[in-house]
Specification:
By secondary structure, the protein is α/β, with parallel strands linked by helices. It has helices spanning 64-80, 103-113, 125-137, 168-181, 195-210, 229-238, 251-260, 303-312, 322-339, 344-347, 364-372; strands spanning 9-10, 49-54, 90-95, 118-121, 141-144, 161-163, 186-192, 214-221, 242-246, 269-272, 293-297, 359-361, 377-379, 396-404, 410-419. The protein is elongated.
């Protein structure tokens, strides 16, 4: 779904209650994400402006539709509950592209010129790393629904960067444990050469080795390469019992080469991650992915939530990171209500507070009413409890485990919930 909306739009009211699973808190000024104080920012104008920096094009374009839908659903429910500070929130959508282009930087320039209060995105960790200084340096809040690189935990973000997806230390741990639990003594890894790929590979390797397994080959590749035969040849030579693929859309080029080399999902156990866990369907011959497994951050999205997303975008075929995008928008709105201001420098101080240590509430409207009554709130979102820590990371999170059928589409088989700090 390509979005070409290049102007602020007021989001129409959806006559339905919010669908969050959670709870909210306003404990005063919580420690901010990052290690430096936030820069001075312009005073709010009374209208909360949400900019999105999400993939319409590029190697993660398949993640764009559910992420846009999550933000749109949240905005409609926020406005149905009376908006923020008595006014409707407005949304402006832009494309994040990928690191092969300068699209993200241009999109950020546009959103900053439009005086966005928060920018939700990017999906790619590397894309976010390329624009985070521009966003936070302007005194604007950035919340990613899908960044998982561990680099953001210690990044000097001036207290303005948050994420609703967990850092890869947790996904890597779940992935590594899964591979070992499936009886794989030796593992080969094909790893995208960027902050996301190498970071996730490091965490997965640690879990595999601590579980008694051995990584016999780890091939880091350039996603723009014309051919991946050399890397696949080294994996074949190492003869692992399992192959982990950590990458993005280039996986579509890697899979046929694996099959040609005799490294099929039937002869070797394949494992995917959030960057390439996709419903490939008829793009490949039936059975190509059968039996393969993958991991994806995020708690189970209920049927009711999915139904609401489909009302926003009937063409949705995937729901990856929709819940995290939804929660990013809801938490922003609650923080602005708690701060009584749409100025990023003010509501950023309330983001952690509304996510923990208060009275549980499960919808934006319920949380808003509790804030109006002078209560501290604790919002537990559709994606999980969130509960941001001092680094702007979720303190705990859920990782879903999925398995492919003969039709090359995946279904959930389990969920693992854990603390980010182990």
């Amino acid at each position: 779904m390509i979005r070409r909306n290049f102007a602020w739009r007021s989001v129409a009211v959806l006559g339905a209650a919010c669908l969050a699973l959670g709870a909210c808190s306003n404990d005063g000024d919580e420690p901010e994400s990052g290690s430096s104080s936030a820069p001075a920012a312009a005073a709010g104008d009374g209208v909360l402006k949400i900019g999105t920096l999400l993939p319409q094009t590029g190697s993660l374009a398949f993640l764009g539709p559910p992420e846009f839908a999550g933000v749109d659903l949240a905005a409609k429910e926020i406005n149905a509950a009376g908006g923020v500070l008595g006014k409707d929130v407005v949304v402006s959508d832009t494309d994040s592209g990928d690191t092969s282009t300068d699209i993200a930087s241009q999109s950020v320039n546009k959103l900053l010129a439009e005086k966005a209060d928060v920018i939700i995105g990017a999906a790619s960790s590397s894309v976010s790393l390329s624009v985070i200084d521009k966003i936070t340096g302007a005194g604007v809040v950035q919340i990613s629904p899908a960044n998982t690189s561990d680099q953001f935990t210690t990044y000097n973000d001036k207290g303005l960067y948050y994420r609703t997806a967990p850092p890869d230390v947790l996904q890597g741990r779940v992935l590594g444990d899964l591979v070992v639990a499936d009886g794989n003594a030796t593992v080969g890894m094909l790893v995208l050469q960027d902050a996301y790929g190498t970071g996730l590979a490091k965490s997965a390797r640690a879990a595999i080795e601590s579980g008694g397994g051995q990584v016999v080959a780890e091939e880091v590749y350039d996603p723009k390469a014309a051919d991946f035969s050399a890397e696949i040849g080294k994996i074949k030579q190492a003869n692992p019992s399992a192959i982990i693929m950590i990458g993005f859309d280039e996986t579509k080029k890697i899979v046929p080469k694996l099959v040609e080399a005799g490294l099929t999902a039937k002869s070797k156990k394949w494992y995917f991650v959030d960057g390439n866990l996709s419903n490939y369907g008829s793009e490949f011959p039936n059975g190509t992915f059968e039996g393969a497994k993958g991991t994806l951050p995020g708690a189970k999205a209920g049927e009711d939530f999915q139904k609401k997303l489909l009302e926003v975008d009937p063409a949705l075929k995937d729901f990856s990171y929709a819940a995290e995008s939804y929660d990013a928008a809801i938490l922003t709105a609650l923080a602005a209500e708690a701060a009584k201001s749409d100025a990023p420098g003010e509501f950023s101080k309330q983001l952690a507070a509304v996510s923990k240590d208060g009275e549980k509430c499960t919808t934006f409207q319920q949380c808003k009413e509790a804030l109006a009554a002078g209560k501290d709130i604790d919002y537990d979102g559709v994606s999980g409890p969130v509960q941001w820590n001092d680094a702007g990371d979720p303190a705990e999170a859920t990782i879903g485990i999925y398995q492919y059928g003969a039709d090359n589409t995946y279904k959930n088989v389990a969920y693992q919930t854990g603390k980010i700090d182990g």
